[in-house]
Amino acid sequence: MQGLPFRRVKVVKIILFFAVLCLPSCKEQISKVPEPVGEFERNVQPIFNRYCVECHSPRNAVRHLVLDSWESLLMGSENGAMIIPFYPKFSHLFQHLHTDTTLSPVAPPQMPIGRNPLSREEVMTIYEWIQNGAPNREGKIPFQESFQKIYVTNQAADLVAVIDKRSGLLMRYVDVSAEGGISQNPLQSPHYVTVSNDKRFWYVSLIAKGEVWKFDAQADTLIAKASVGSSPAHIVCSPDDSTLYVSNFSASVNRITMIDANTMTVKRVSPPINAAPHGLALSRDGRRLYATAYESDRVFELDLETFATRQFPLRRAGEPSMRNYRPYQVMLSPDERRLFVTCNGDATFDGDLRVIDLETLDIRAIPVGKYPILMDYTPDKTRLYVANRNSNSVSVVNVQSEVVVATIENVGIQPHGLAISSDGFGYVSNESLIGFVGHHPTDGGLRAGTSSIIDTRTNQVIKVVEMLSFPAGVAIRE
Ligand code: HEC
What we know:
single chain; mainly beta; 4-stranded antiparallel sheet; 11% helix; binds heme C
C-alpha cells in the first residue's frame, strides 16, 4: 500500500454502514411482511453462506469484509468496494473466486482460502448477478439513487470511475471505449470531466479520439457525442450551460472550439491561440475566457463578444530565456483580478504556480511542488489546493497572501486532478503510472490507480479509493 494512510477506515466504515443500510428504505428493514426472494437470496447468498461467512461474518470479519447480507457485502472491505455493479471483471470479490484470466483479472489468494475452489457454475452465478447490476431482492441496483458523485477519468482504461460521495465507495465504471467493451486498442483516452452548472449533465473529453461525450448525470447514461477536432483537453460550460468551450491541445490546431451543448455540434471556433491551448477559465459573467498556451509560455484572454485576444507572458524579467514554463491550468482569483497558472516546467525548471495581476501585469511565482497540474479552491475561497504530480504532494496556498501555508505529502503516486466539494473534501486523482499495482496485484489486469480524499480542515488524507489506470480529470456533482 506504499504507506498510503488508511487511518480513518473505522470511522468511514461506520458512515458507510448507515449509508448502505439506508439504500433500501428503512421502513422495509423493520417490516414483518414476508420478503420477496430474488436472484441474490435464491442463488448468490447461499454460496456465501456455505463457503465464506465462516471467515467473513460480523463476529469474524476478515479484512472487515462481511458476506452475510446484500447490505454488508456492498459496504466492501477495508480496501473499499468489492462489487462494482455491471462489472464482474473489475469487481475485486469476483477476482478472488477463480483462476481463469479470460473471465477477469485474477487476484490471489483464491477464496475460500485453503479450501476447494467454487465450481464453475457457482462462479458464473456470481458473475451473472454482478453483470445484471448486483440487484437486491426488490431489483434495486446499488447506489441507483445516489445524487452526489465524484467522476474520475481513468485515461488508460477508457472508463470513467464514479465514487458515491456519501460512502466514499467506488460505485460504477462508465464505459467510454470505442466498442463499448473496454477495448484497449486504440485508446480514446478520457482526459478531463466537468459537470454542468445545473448538475443535469457531465461532459468528458476523449483526447485521443477528438470527441466530447455528454452524459445524463443521474443515470450516467450517454446522451450524445460531439466531434471537436484534434486533442480536446479542457472543457468549461458557459454560466447558462448553453455552450461548451473546449481547448484543442494541439500545436497544429491551436484553437478553442465552441459547442452548442444542446445539439452537441460545433458553433464556432476561436481565433488562433498559439500554441497548444490547454487549461481554461471563464469569468463569472461568461464574457472572458482565459486559455493557457502550453507551448508558448503565455496565457491568452479571449473576449467572447468581440473575439479579440490579449496575451499575458509568464516569463519575468531576468529569468533564463531557454526555460519553458508549460502553463497547464489557469484559474481566476475569487475577485477576478488575478490569474493563478500552474506551470509544469521543463528539464531545467521544476515548475511553479504563477500569479498574473491583470491590472498591473505584475507576475509573481509561488514555489509549490514539482510539475503542478490541477487545482481548486476551498469552499470559502481563502485557500487554493494544487496537485504536484512529480512530488506526490498537494500544496495549500493562501489566496490573499500568495504564500504556501501547508504541504500535504504522500497524497498518492503522481497526483493529477483535484476538486474540492462544498463541504471541504478534496478529491485527488493519482495517475499511479509508476509504482502502485493495487492492494492485491492482479494477474491479467490493467494497472491500478487511486484517488485520495483529503479533509481540508485537517489537511489529512482520510481515504484512498482504488480504481483503474491513469486517473486524471476529476469533477464533483453535489
Ligand atoms: C478460512 C477463512 C476464509 C474463508 C472461508 C474465506 N475467506 Fe476471504 N479472506 C480470508 C483471508 C485470510 C483474506 C485476506 C487475504 C489476503 O489479503 O491475503 C480474505 C480476503 C478476501 C477478500 C479480499 C478483501 C480485500 O480487502 O481485498 C475477498 C473479496 C474475500 N476474501 C472473499 C471471500 C469469499 C467470496 C469467500 C467465499 C467464497 C471467502 N472469502 C472465504 C479468509 C477467508
